[in-house]
Each structure stands twice: as C-alpha cells, then as structure tokens.
Write a structure and sequence with these properties.
alpha/beta, Alpha-Beta Plaits, seven-stranded mixed sheet
Length: 506
C-alpha cells in the first residue's frame, strides 16, 4: 500500500554481487538492455569504431515500438508514428531540411521534452536507418458517428472540434476568454505559471484553460477511456504521454469564436509498408552486422556493484562481468532492484484488437472515435506489401478480454470503413501493461527510488525509462543512446590525449 502522497516505501541496502571481484574484466564497452536507448547506444558506438559487447536480455528488443507476430502477420501495438519535427510543414519535415544544427550532446539532460533541441539529430538518425522508406502519415481523422472530420487531438488543431461541437462553440469561446483574463494567453504554459503544469493534473489544467464543459468534451471524453481515472491520472506537463492536447486559452477562444489563429503544423511519419516496427528491425539488423559488436544473450540484470573504477553486473542466468562504466538501458524497476531498491508504479494497460480489412477497403492512417460511450477510442492502419490492410483498434480499459476483437470490428463498421461487419476478419486481441501512469504519485515514487539508486553510487550511465520519469518516448531514447555513445567516445579520446601528453612529457 502507498500513503496518501503516493510515495512507496523504498529500502536501499548494499547488495553483494556473487562472484564480483573474481568475475572476468571486460575491456570493451559494455551496453546492457533491450530498450531503444540501449540499442542506439550500441549502434552509435559501433559506427564510431568502438568495440562493444551488447548484453541483450530476454525481453522483446524495442519494447512497445517493436511488432508482435501472430499467424505470420506483423502487428503494431497501437498507433505508432514518428514525430521528427515540431511545428514544421509536412514537406519540410519529410525533405530532411528540418535537420537543423543541434547543440552538443554533452548538454542533453533526460526528460519528457529533453530531446527537443536535438530533434534534427533524431530526424537524421532515422533517415540513416530507413532512408526513402520514410513517408508521411496522412492527417489524422475523427469519427463523428460515421462521419470523418479533421482530428484535433494528434494534430493539436481545433478546427475539427469547432465543427464537432458547433452548437456549444459560443459557450466554449466565452469560457476560454475568461481563462485568458485569469491566466493570460498561454495559460499555465506561461513562465510565471509553468510550475502548475508539474503539480496539477491534466483534468485541472484543462478546466483552467478551457472551462470544465469544453475540457470534458475535448479531453476527458477520451482520457476516461484510456485510463480508469481519466485525465486525473495524468500530470498536466505529461499530457502528450497519452497523445492528448492541452490548448492555450487564447487558441481555444479564437477557434471557437471563429477568429483567425495560428494553426500548428504537426507532421507525422512512418516506415512505408512496415510501420514503426520496421525501424526497430533496421536498427537491430545494423547492430547485428557491425563487425565491432558482440551480442550476448543473458537474463535480467539482478546485481550491480562498483568497486573502484570497475562495476560488476550480475545476470539471472549466472553471467557475471566487470567493466568500466557500463551503459545500462534496462527498465527502471529492474535496474533499481539490482541495487536493492524496490519500485512499484501503477501501470496503464493497453487493450488492443487487430482486424483485417477486405480487399479494396481503405481506412485512415490514424483516427479517433469521438463518442465517449464507444469502447474504441483510437485506431490505426498498417499496409503490409504482401497482405490486406490491418487496423489496430485501441479499446477502453473496461472492455472484457473476450469482447476486444468483436468491439474492434464493430467500430470499423460504425466508422463506415465497410458496409458489413461480416466482411472483417478478427486476427487477434491482447491486453497488457504498457507504461507507468504519468501521475503525480508515480513520479514521486520514481524520484525517491532514483535518488536512492544514485546514493548507492554505481558507476554507470543510465539510459531509457530509468533515466528520468516520463523520458521513454522514442525520440527521447534515441537522443539518450546517442548522448551516451558520444560521452564514451569523448572519454576515450580524452584518455588517449592524456596518455599522449604523458608520453610526450617524458
């Protein structure tokens, strides 16, 4: 049980690593874990000419960004799109010209938005993997009772919402104007109010920016299907963790009153025919082909201890090694447990149903379902080259496991994709833990555990979900992996320079 502040009891103690001092010393750079950040670090180190040993665990490499395989089909785990530029026109984002000069990676600090200054670097890195296979995702749509309109959630563009809620537009505009008077044009995004985003829920922020009525229609109607407690379980600053927007009061006031406003450009991309999982495949393949990389398959990381400059890593399969500053890209719970720290975070769950479309049928790349009483809230379409399109429906938490596939098919028919639900083939369904709830209480537990981990003083570089709460998006993990590799290469270069100086002086 957790107390009212949501802080778990965290016990830190010294964990003896069996065979620690007698374990073999690995002179090559060690990278541990199956996360995107870990694999990017391996890849970047190999491309820089470093000798690397990658200790891969028993999890699926790439986690939720990888595909699952069912009946010979590659299935995506929900809507997976790449956001490779912010507020840039689609043609610019996809031309590669958005890859602007980035600051040195030494200045990177992990966080939910820590990668933004390096988004051009992420863009370039993705292109190095998939090249011309990178293609635009069509503008997301919104299903309004079988009628598709422009989406306002992923796009962050309220034009579609005005059409959807036209009878209430004047009232919504008045509430947003009142919010402008109270909080200013940017609301809680303004520097003087920004701390409010860190300490209040998305539900509170939405009500402050839009009024409770508009926030309920625009935000809570979707959040309540994604999470049991809806927008109350989301830190306002982390609203994009569940792909929901938080509009400026001035934007909502202008949009609902019919006044001109700056409409955001949010281009999304994917890998043609293969989707996001194709990117993971290319990354793993490039690492596997690197002559300077050795891949070793081990169990979970269960022990971590530093003695002088060397850190001992022990794995559940009995493997024990010592190395200088390993890069650790395992999950937060696994990493902290390796030094005797318990971390228990409340999870969000994903409920998915995959449905194959008949020949000739087409569906939007991504669409949302506006009706809050509908169990499907979001759907996305993959188009493999050798089989019909497959729609992955994401369903509300309350849907029974036995009904996931049926409800997914019904949602596709209700959206007008097919005229007869009998034309659809349900391929399968699944429910699983997906990510920690982006809640205030979870963040407090994480920060307490991370502080205890740092106090244990293991000499290592942490990447992935254990680096910082909420810093586990694809973009964030790419920058983390690149930054870790750059630090290793830089340290090695500095050591060589120091050695050369000593030799020259002698």
């Amino acid at each position: 049980m957790h107390d009212e502040a949501g802080i778990a009891s965290v016990e830190s103690h010294s964990t003896a690593v069996a065979g620690g001092r007698g374990a073999p010393i690995e002179r090559r750079q060690v990278v541990v874990g199956d996360s995107i950040a870990a694999v990017v670090a391996v890849d970047a180190l190999a491309r820089a000419g470093a000798e690397v040993v990658w200790y891969a665990g028993g999890q699926r490499v790439g986690g939720g960004f990888a595909a699952v395989h069912l009946g010979g089909r590659r299935l995506e785990l929900g809507a997976r799109v790449l956001e490779l530029s912010y507020d840039a026109p689609t043609d610019v984002a996809l031309s590669g010209s958005a890859a602007l000069a980035c600051p040195p990676l030494s200045g990177y600090r992990p966080g939910p938005h820590g990668h933004r200054e390096w988004i051009g670097l992420v863009d370039s890195y993705v292109r190095s993997l998939v090249g011309d296979e990178l293609c635009a995702v069509a503008p997301p749509q919104m299903d309004l009772g079988g009628r598709m309109v422009d989406d306002w959630l992923l796009a962050g563009d309220l034009a579609g919402a005005v059409e959807a809620f036209a009878p209430s537009a004047q009232r919504f505009a008045a509430a947003a104007e009142a919010a402008v008077d109270r909080w200013g044009e940017r609301g809680w995004f303004a520097s003087e109010h920004h701390d409010l985003l860190q300490h209040h829920s998305l539900a509170e922020a939405g009500a402050a920016h839009l009024g409770s009525d508009a926030s309920g229609r625009l935000i809570e109607s979707f959040a309540s299907r994604i999470l049991r407690r809806g927008a109350n379980d989301v830190i306002a600053a982390l609203h994009r963790k569940i792909w929901l927007p938080l509009f400026w009061p001035s934007t909502a006031a202008a949009a609902f009153s019919g006044a001109p406003y700056v409409r955001p450009e949010r281009p999304f991309a994917t890998v043609r025919e293969r989707g996001m999982s194709g990117l993971v495949d290319e990354l793993v393949a490039r690492v596997g082909a690197a002559s300077t990389v050795e891949v070793r398959h081990v169990g979970n990381l269960v022990g971590l201890e530093s003695d002088g400059p060397l850190t001992t890593c022990a794995f559940s399969d009995g493997t024990v090694i010592r190395s200088a500053r390993p890069v650790l890209g395992v999950g937060a719970r696994e990493l902290f447990a390796a030094v005797g720290i318990e971390l228990d975070l409340d999870p969000a769950h994903s409920s998915l149903g995959w449905v194959e479309l008949p020949d000739g049928a087409s569906a939007p790349d991504v669409w949302w379902v506006a009706a809050e009483d509908r169990p499907v809230f979001r759907a996305s379409t993959s188009r493999p080259a050798d089989s019909p399109p497959v729609v992955c429906c994401e369903l509300a938490w309350w849907v029974d496991d036995s009904e996931l596939g049926t409800e997914a098919a019904a949602a596709i028919a209700d959206a007008g994709i097919v005229s007869d639900v009998g034309d659809l083939q349900v391929l399968g369904s699944a429910r699983s833990r997906s990510f920690p709830l982006p809640s205030v209480s979870n963040r407090a537990r994480f920060q307490l555990a991370r502080a205890a981990f740092d106090a244990a003083s293991p000499i290592c570089t942490v990447v992935g979900s254990a680096s910082e709460f909420g810093a586990d998006t694809f973009n964030e993990q790419v920058v983390q992996g690149l930054a870790a590799a750059a630090a290793v290469v830089g340290d090695a270069a500095a050591a060589r320079a120091a050695s050369s100086s000593v030799v020259a002086a002698s």
